[in-house]
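Predict both folds.
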Amino acid sequence: MSRADNNEKIVEMDEVLRRLGEARAMGRGMAEDRFGVFVARNRFARPVMTVGPEILRLLMAGELISPRQEQPDEWVISRLGRARLRRTQANDAPFRSQHQVLDLREQRGMRGEPVVVRVNNAESPLGWLISHKDRKGKPLISTEQFAAGERLRQDFTLANLAPRVTAMWGMPINHAGRRGGGGDPACMNDTMIAAKDRLWAALDAVGPDLGGVLLQVCCHLNGLTQTERNLGWPARAGKVVLGIALDRLAAHYGIGIGGPPRQQPRTYHSGVADTGCKK
């Protein structure tokens, strides 16, 4: 699939979400495997747009739409779909889009299901690494390494953690069963709590020596040079350690081939101020 084809599909998916974002809008299957979007402003008389089965598959795989509870054969925009719609409708989107390199990648969801995500390769260090090749013509990181790093980043984003909070990983579980340092539990929804738990489990799996570089590159989006400076490493050491960390992370997620990593105690250094909290 060419980059132009990817961008066309992204545009079409976002247009479906824009129309489903209208009040009382819904979608349903039509003849010839088409998916139609119906809105209240024309009293649902006819679809305002239709798309083919591939676009519908991408929307469902990305969990951007969900069945209406009272009418399972009708589809509405999901919470994730609304979050994506807000991002695409941001005021600075026309300017930001000039610097984006968009691509569609298929990753595995938390239950092993395929999830198609939109990636801006110009935004994340991992996107840059997988888009550039070494002297032998191979990408600087593999598809499995990229998928593992992006999955960690996804949970970091869903958990709504600030950079300073990452210095507090390693704190013991409190009486409510949640680790401290992530904000008031009363202000956190189940999605955020589950994302935090998955994030800590992944960092536990890779071990303390490798957790810091993953936080720097995957979560805080620091480049390798900045990561080496933040962690006090010599020049050009970051790429080697990052590769090892991503391999171990991929093994934890079950991406590619690899045995389960050795469990390590929880002590992480992400390059931000130490809070003095240890387990």
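Second protein follows, with its predicted structure tokens after the sequence.
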Amino acid sequence: MLTLQLLTNKTKFAIDLMTTHMKVRFFVLSILLLAISINSFAESDNTPVEDSLKLGEWAHSGEGTLNVNQGYLSNWVEGGESSISATWVLNLSAKYKSDNTSWDNYARWKYGVLKSGYESLRKNEDKFEFESKFGFNASESWYYSGLVNVKSQLFNGYSYPNDSIPVSAFLSPGNIVSSLGMDYKPNKNFTLMLSPFSVKTTVVWDTVNIDQTRYGLEADERFKGELGGYVTAKWAANLHENIVMNNKIELFSSYLNNPENIDIDWEFALILKATKYLSTSITTHLIYDHDIDIPVYTFENGERVRDGDKMTKAIQFKEMLSIGFSYKF
């Protein structure tokens, strides 16, 4: 029986090891295929999304967008309720390029509110992001680069219908990525940053009101640092005269803590322009972070309720279809 148990344990260990190696190889292969496929499209895109940079000069740009969704019901016997939501998006960028250097900076803030039926006004979107990337030219399209990316929110967030205890706040959590690597920029619409040396820091500054264990930290921690590999790609393309697509994906793997578990942050936007100021947009946002536990819910008597204290690992996904009014400056 002892011999059989040892063989069983060894077999399980071998299977786990093989599974881990397969996940790592699959991740590397996925990155290569992503880079090759996106780059092939990017190089074939002859329609610039942004104006060309003039060497030795700063280029500043900004865009504000108000997206609206609305539905109204009155005496509707089949049921339902009226709703309205609005999301404000502000994008700012400042870029500089010389013969040997490239410096890209951008900031973005998204804030949205929702009112459904007789419920009070609720926040359903709040994201602030700042990124700065500086590089020295290595060859025609490659740069030795350093990057800093900061993500958080500006206002308190709640797990409705409980609006008395916040689950998030400014820098609670906050995610900071600092990385060194190579940046591939074949044209102004595509960039691929490969960083074998990166530090991802998760911050929960307000541990009095915010439960930091919700975001992968221990009960006595405010900061959590992880050393790992980081890959980020951005691709913008005019698919048609009035159709613009934006893609941004970030991948992070911790070297010391289950490197086979890849953190994913992928944003996609498809914008159909009706006029200079009016457009319809479809946006999606997918997040997976193995350090974050997701509550498990069940349905009782037609109502969605927590299944005790059960938690799981799951993909976070958000999708929005809206009409927007935008202005560039």
